[in-house]
Structures are given as C-alpha cells and as structure tokens.
Amino acid sequence: MRTAVVWDALESVLGGVPRDVVDLGGGTGGFAVRLARSGHRVRVVDPSPDALASLARRAREEDVDVSGLQGDVTDLVDVVGSASADIVLCHGVLEVVDPAEALGRVAEVLRPGGRLSLVVGQRHAAVLGRAMAGHFGQALALLDDQAPIDARTGRRFTAAEITVLLEAAGFVDLDVHAVRVFSDLVPAVLVDQEPGAAAALVELERAVAQRPEYLPLATQLHVVATRGG
Ligand SMILES: C[S@@+](CC[C@H](N)C(=O)[O-])C[C@H]1O[C@@H](n2cnc3c(N)ncnc32)[C@H](O)[C@@H]1O
Fold it and tell me: Is the N or the C terminus of the chain less surrounded, counting Cβ atoms within 10 Å?
C-alpha cells in the first residue's frame, strides 16, 4: 500500500523490456527483487553488509539473480561503472547523504536519456507530523530548515528544493508524485478491520498522486527524471 504510487510510475518507466537497473541504497531488496523477478538486470549498491546479506537471502528465496555490491554514493561510479544503467533507483537515500553530490554521481552512471526514480521525505508533512505529536518547537524549527533533522532521519525536501537539485545535476523532464498523502494519517485499525478499506485507500492515494496541491501533504515525493544529453 505504501509503495503503490511509486510502482505505478516505475512500471511505466520500465516499459516492459529488460533494463539495466542500479538500486542505490537498495537495502534489503524490496524493490530490487521484484524488479529482478520481472526480468530486469538489477545491481544493488549499499554500504550495509547486513542489508546486502538480507538481500541475498531474499533473492535466493525468490530464485532470482540480484547482484549486491558494497559501496555508497561516493564510490558509486567505481562500483557500477559510468554510463552503465538505464534506470537508477534512489529511494530513501538522499535524506542521509550530500544530495547534490549523490545526484551528480547518479547522473554519471546513467546512460544519456536514462531515467532516475527518486523517493525523498517531504518536509511539510514532517512539520505537520511533529505538530500533531505536540512537538511544536520541533515543528517550528523544521519549517524552513534544510539541515538534517538528525543523523538517522536526515533531511526533508520540498518539491521546489528537489526540483532545483535535480536540474542543477542535469536532469530534465521531471515528473513529481505525492506518495503516502493519507496512509500515515489514517489509524491502522480503520484500514485493517474494514473489508475493502485497504484497496479503497490505495485508490485514493493513486487519485491524488499527480495533483500538485497534494504534494505538500505527502510523506514522500517520488520524482521520475531523465538524464539530459
Ligand atoms: C531508508 S533505507 C531505504 C532502503 C530502500 N531504498 C527502500 O526504499 O526500501 C536507506 C538505505 O540507504 C543506505 N545508505 C545509507 N547511507 C548510504 C550512502 N552513503 N550511500 C548509499 N546508500 C546508503 C542504507 O544502508 C539503507 O539501506
């Protein structure tokens, strides 16, 4: 349910033919294994040996090939090679790295015309979340603050900020989607106990994903962008 909107956009980018995919910070392989199952050649680059071990286990269980490579943003080009990918996934990573540097490296490993699938935490939802939890001072501090919230949570971005960063790294044709507009606000019990509620919630999330007025309410932004020539 939390990734339905991301998968919708990703599947239209993949276009039904096998692609060379690099999943930067792909972790335990939630996206990578499913992509490999659909016939894509997937390399996951992640600094965490534990995550890579879980990825290998998951791939074995699903009987698919995913190459797990230990590395991070800084050595991404050395690890996978420049201009070696049709698609790079960078989901939940930009928050904890230098975003401009990371996007520069991602652009280098993409072939010209290659596509980036980027998921980042969205700041206005984080402000709202802190206010609703009674942490008004934290909410106030977060309003305009582009610095990391803390080492674990990292940064949050607005749609305008992520657009500037992507364009500076040479990406074009940006398509921004709102992800998890309602899912994190609705009590789980309402979704779990009411028959059909989960499917209805996904339908609602899909209905607002492309409406710009919902971007500031989204927990995450999903951006599909093309590496410019
Ligand atoms: C929030 S998880 C996201 C995992 C996965 N992409 C997903 O969407 O489910 C962040 C991942 O980024 C990885 N990571 C942390 N620092 C990194 C860095 N400097 N370069 C690349 N990946 C990093 C972590 O090991 C972790 O697997």
Answer: C
